[in-house]
Amino acid sequence: MANGIIASYKSWLKYRQTCNELNRLTNRELADLGIARGDITNVARRSVGY
């Protein structure tokens, strides 16, 4: 059970880190990556397998 909690927490940390890093980019930089600002949460979720 503890392993599941730890794994969930690590996934959440990776999700937050991804969101934070993408939110620091300008709209132009996001566009260069093919990401719209409104898609950041979806991209972050996919990065952790949600």
TrEMBL record:
Q: Name one Pfam family in it.
A: YjiS-like
Family matches, as InterPro entries = YjiS-like (IPR009506)
Q: Which residues form the YjiS-like domain?
A: 5-40
- What is this protein called in UniProt? Uncharacterized protein YjiS (DUF1127 family)
Origin species: Kaistia hirudinis
